[in-house]
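Hi C.,

You asked whether I'd gotten around to modeling the 394-residue construct. I have! Everything is below, sequence then structure, no commentary in between.
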Amino acid sequence: MSMRVSMLAPYISRRAGGLMDCVRSLSRFLENEHDIHVDVISVEDEFAAEDRASWGALSVHLVASKHAAFRYAPGISRQLSSLTPDLVHTHGIWTYLSIAATRWSKSNGGVTPRPYVVSTHGMLDPWALHNSRWKKIIAGFAFERRHLENATCIHAINRAEVAAIRAFGLKNPICIIPNGVEVRASNVANRTPPCPAYVVRGRKVLLYLGRLHPKKGLNILLRGWKKASERERGWILVIAGWDQGGHLRELEQLTRELKISDSVHFTGPVFGEARDTAYQNADAFILPSLSEGQPLVVLEAWSYARPVIMTQECNLPEGFEKRAAIRMSATVEGAAEALGKLFALEKSALEEMGRRGRDLVIDNFSWSQIASQMFAVYGWLLGRSAPPNCVLFN
């Protein structure tokens, strides 16, 4: 029996960062490999029209917003009523999408509420809850706790997120399904670097790619880079990403103050083919984040067979277990120590670490496997099958 699912996403554009890639890939693999029709409902923003093309043949419905930050868009409820899905899947919390999902579930003529899934995408982690704390306390009281408590199932990407969900006081069933990544060919011929050759000057490239936000720990990285690069000048740090809240200016100012501008290069945001070639031109990847759900960028770096430096807050312990990553503590000294370990590795050791990362992604993080698990969860919630093994009840 065919299934109709509506995905509620705060953005379909680059504004969502890795969340956009997750929703798009999950939707595409669900449709391509299972008997299901997916409608993606989202809110318009300044990049939505341009980035819509990257969603291909997927059914995407954009609704006008009356409040950019809160994503207030009453049209979402009208879309849900028109599309008549069997199930709704909300991606992210703390926005009007939560209200729309709760209302849709209850608008069933007084009978059993319709089922919906919530993917919190790391937004209940301690660091995330502390950020804009009072706004979230108010939002929790007004609508978000109701949205979460009434969810038929909550989706967590790992055990750390399960712990955060339970610490928030939620008793719902939880399905543990990781984020995924597409493993592309590692051919690097005819690639165009994200920064000019005169900037690299024959040095190895350590890449950061993502939002420029205090949560990402880039100020710690720059201070650690200052310490480590005094002993090793064969590397350049390339920071590729989009500015959020003016943090780029702070990072550029810190780079000048530390007198490391010769070995640190800011490329600005990269998307599409430019994003791919950024990975291809890197010799290693780094994510010094203070808080993550499960970062897609690390999985992408491994898919290109690149060794990784990351903090334990990235919630990918498999990378350390499989020796595909160097552990970094989120301190200046921790960054300098991890960088020193990277700089000491020979080319063959870097390549072997990257190969282990690629094998890890192939074995555990393919979108085909992930879509199959999510489809099984949907089938259970609609009463068509038994609960799959990925579901926890306590």
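If it helps when you're writing up: The chain is about 40% helix and 15% strand.

Thanks,
B.
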